[in-house]
């Protein structure tokens, strides 16, 4: 059957419309797919990461401290007198027993001489009495009285010698005569100060432990102190307080270090005290961020390319980065873009160059 021209035209037009509609649908679907891919790409930002393995590291507790003398004693006079000499140089090292201040003997030397003369007389009397008693010319009572008199004279001599010895105020231990409080001509009453002695070897490094770190420090633990003078001293914890300061809520800790060079007391120090060992990670300093709660930590990429956050504690800062505690196993730490992503967000992670 032969179609009329007008019908043929209609069929052609309908066919063209069907083809145009089909092609439009395909194009629209492709466009929407491309837009979806573009939107997805825009929603998954690119970050750079570095793979950080877990390592074993010595744990330390870092505090701010200061040097302090192991002992500081104000040396005082035991007897009244006028200072006649000050042999010790202020600020100099002196040995135990060295004279710091010498008082004027006055009549004490004469008293000692008289006591010694009386002792010799009593000893001669005792010897004669002993010989007479042996021959039967001296009673037992008289002999014992002469012996007691000799003993009393000996006690008087010891007392007079002690009085003379007390005129020399001596160093109680090896140390530095740090400050003189009495000059020649000063009259000292019993209990008044000649000067101050300090012991600098061993030297103490003292500091205050916060409540969160107090349980990590044990007596005997090794410690290193870097002084403001540039010196580095090594020693061991000799004391860790069990009771907190009521004002600061901190615990005093003392580290004893050998100090043959007589480093001064009162210098500031950065102290690191060993507290065992355990897992740690070396991360770039720039990777540290704060979360919404203000905690310091790092953001890293989990399986599934999602961002996670872990709070960390800094162990030590080195030229290669910082050692932190708080991560577990190998971790892909975000080093670029960590401040612009949030926990749970999906990202595209690439290795940092």
Short summary:
The chain has 4 helices and 20 strands.
Order of helices and strands: HEEEEEHHEEEEHEEEEEEEEEEE
CATH class of the largest domain: Mainly Beta
Question: What kind of sheet is the major sheet?
Answer: 6 strands, mixed
- Share of residues in helices: 25-40%
Number of helices: 4
Q: What does the overall shape look like?
A: rod-shaped
Mean pLDDT reading: 86
CATH superfamily of the largest domain: RNA polymerase II/Efflux pump adaptor protein, barrel-sandwich hybrid domain
Write the CATH architecture name of the largest domain: Beta Barrel
Low-confidence stretches: 31-41
Category by helix and strand content: alpha+beta
Count of structural domains: 3
For this entry, give a set of tags.
353 residues, alpha+beta, conserved putative lor/sdh protein from methanococcus maripaludis s2 fold, Elongation Factor Tu (Ef-tu), domain 3, OB fold (Dihydrolipoamide Acetyltransferase, E2P), 3 domains, 6-stranded mixed β-sheet, 6-stranded antiparallel barrel, 4 helices, 20 strands
How would you describe this protein?
The protein has four helices and 20 strands. The chain is of the alpha+beta class and 353 residues long. Helix 2 runs antiparallel to helix 3. Strands 1, 14, 15, 16, 19 and 20 form a six-stranded mixed β-sheet that branches. Strands 2-9-12-11-10-13 form a six-stranded antiparallel beta barrel. Strand 14 and strand 15 form a beta hairpin. It has three domains: 86 residues, conserved putative lor/sdh protein from methanococcus maripaludis s2 fold; 87 residues, Elongation Factor Tu (Ef-tu), domain 3 (Beta Barrel), CATH 2.40.30; 120 residues, OB fold (Dihydrolipoamide Acetyltransferase, E2P) (Beta Barrel), CATH 2.40.50. The radius of gyration is 45 Å and the shape is rod-shaped. The chain starts with a helix and ends with a strand.
